[in-house]
Amino acid sequence: MNKILKSEYLSGRVLLALNLILVLAIIQLFTIPLYLHFTSNSVLIENIIFLPMLGYCILASIFSILLHEQEEKANSFQNINSEKNRAIIWGMKLIATDLLMVLLGIPVWIVVGFDFDRLSYYAYVGVISWLLLILLNHFHMLLSLIMGKAGNLVISFIECLFIIFATNKVFLDSYWLPIALPVNLILEFGGNKIFMIITYLIGFIILLYFCNLAVINKFKIQKNM
């Protein structure tokens, strides 16, 4: 009975994380398109694209902490600590979360694209935002395996600073900085550097995915401090 109750608690924790994404997606859909519809400031219209990215950093950190806690409490009766299944389970969670992030990255910009009659551009922005969310998800899930909650959150705020600097074109040619690549892709829309930048971005996403699998195979999940 105790295990059943504990499983229900864990399911509630997962639902909390999923509901967090759904609520934020709905808030975006009801605020960003409406606000842009009634503003005539062209500078604001162009720059508001980057505003949600700051929230994505913190969201990815919180989401990774929630999922890590779920696994930590489930270890006594689930297979996450099994050497055979550990990487498979963690990898599936990463992919499932990546797919769920579509709700945050794409729909709001599709709506904005229809409103401004620039569907191709804003659909592009939506896809890039989704890739940023995937990058952040993989990175913060990796951090959840090797450091505590506080460190994970602190790094998310540092990422926000990098995004702010990137919007000012400080890291325009910095392919070594993954967090700046999605911003650069938007700034370089229609340019000849897009293919190279997106190749680096996808490469970092794949690298972080396999880093997650390698770390979870090699080490036991440590307790968050």
From TrEMBL:
Entry's transmembrane regions: 12-36, 48-67, 88-110, 122-146, 153-172, 194-216
Q: Which InterPro entries match?
A: ABC_permease_NisG-like
Q: State whether keyword rRNA-binding applies.
A: no
**Record bears the keyword Cell division:** no
Domain of life, per UniProt, equals Bacteria
Q: Which UniProt keywords apply?
A: Membrane, Transmembrane, Transmembrane helix
Tell me what this protein is called.
NsuG
Query: From which source organism is this entry?
Result: Streptococcus thoraltensis
